[in-house]
Design brief:
Elements lengths: L7 H7 L1 H28 L2 E2 L7 E2 L3 H8 L1 H35 L4 H9 L6 H11 L6 H10 L14 H25 L4 H9 L4 H12 L1 H16 L3 H6 L13 H10 L4 H29 L1
Helix pairs in contact: 2-14, 3-14, 4-8, 4-11, 5-8, 6-8, 8-11, 11-14, 13-14
């Protein structure tokens, strides 16, 4: 059979070696990525405890989710953690990268290595470290406070409904600032110093040079950084789980969507409801990422 030029079959025949070379990756992607995503979407419309056949129940799982006060609390906690961790992580990373790039001529490689050290520590171990530092009886923070209060004042940081989320934010900021620092300093080094010199001749101060020269030219890197921080922040699981010892904290003040999804699936064995939670989580990540991308693109 004659194949028309320009058709998909014709292009596949012309580039058959390329398609053969990518076939193994494509098969793995279809089996272990695309199929589970599609299957979990349909599973979200069923009731299933992991045994037997799933029972179709329509949108009951989604109705149940948004009537569940713990799930609503997990959404609030996740947005809180994502927003403040992203704000402080990216802000601190940019400030450090700008200072190192513009005011330190030597040892820039040293700072790259030092700021990446926290990324080598496992998230669970980081959470354990923070829990030890803020421990009620033997924590470093309470020990320092007791020096100024003669041992009268101690605070239960890990049992506080207010402080558990800031402590999770602290873990994320400490761990991921170095990663974004590397991205930013790489982007800053691609900007010609002549542009800064020209802006300075026009009378621009440091803030004006950052707003009108640095940020517009770094928009692609900022977009990658924001998307990475968004995906990681919304999916957060290890830090709140270890910090609250799997309980979610007092009054579920530290439970995240990822943590509650794990509890629903592997503690309550409600896999249909957990699948619905995962789809809501996916929509949140997609929505926030698209909004961030639009805001950054409108900036240029």
């Amino acid at each position: 059979m004659k194949v028309a030029k320009g058709s998909i079959v014709y292009r596949m025949k012309q580039n058959k070696m390329f398609y053969i070379s990518v076939a193994p990756f494509l098969m793995i992607f279809l089996m272990f990525s695309l199929f589970p995503i599609v299957a979990s979407f349909f599973l979200g419309f069923t009731k299933w405890n992991g045994v037997g056949l799933p029972e179709f129940n329509g949108i009951d799982n989604y109705i149940q989710l948004f009537k569940d006060p713990i799930f609503i609390k997990s959404i609030y906690n996740t947005i809180y953690i994502w927003f403040f961790s992203t704000l402080f992580t990216l802000g601190l990373a940019f400030i450090l990268a700008y200072l190192v790039n513009h005011y330190i001529d030597r040892a820039k490689g040293f700072f790259r290595v030092v700021f990446l050290f926290p990324l080598l520590v496992a998230p669970a171990l980081t959470a354990i470290m923070i829990s030890v530092i803020f421990s009620t009886n033997a924590g470093i923070v309470n020990s320092i406070i007791s020096l100024f209060t003669e041992g009268v004042f101690t605070y239960e940081w890990l049992r506080s409904q207010f402080w558990v989320k800031p402590l999770i934010v602290l873990i994320i900021v400490w761990r991921w600032t170095g990663y974004h620092f590397i991205l930013y300093i790489a982007g800053l080094q691609t900007i010609s110093k002549e542009l800064y010199d020209a802006a300075e001749i026009d009378g621009a101060n440091v803030f004006q040079k950052i707003m009108n020269v640095t940020l517009p030219l770094m928009t692609p890197i900022l977009l990658v950084s924001v998307i990475t921080a968004t995906v990681g922040g919304i999916q957060i699981f290890d830090e709140p789980y270890v910090l609250t010892q799997g309980t979610g904290g007092i009054n579920n003040s530290g439970v995240s969507m990822g943590m509650y999804l794990y509890q629903t699936a592997f503690e309550y064995f409600n896999f249909g409801l957990a699948a619905a939670q995962s789809f809501v989580l996916f929509l949140m990540i997609l929505g926030i990422t698209l909004v961030n991308a639009r805001l950054l693109r409108n900036r240029t």
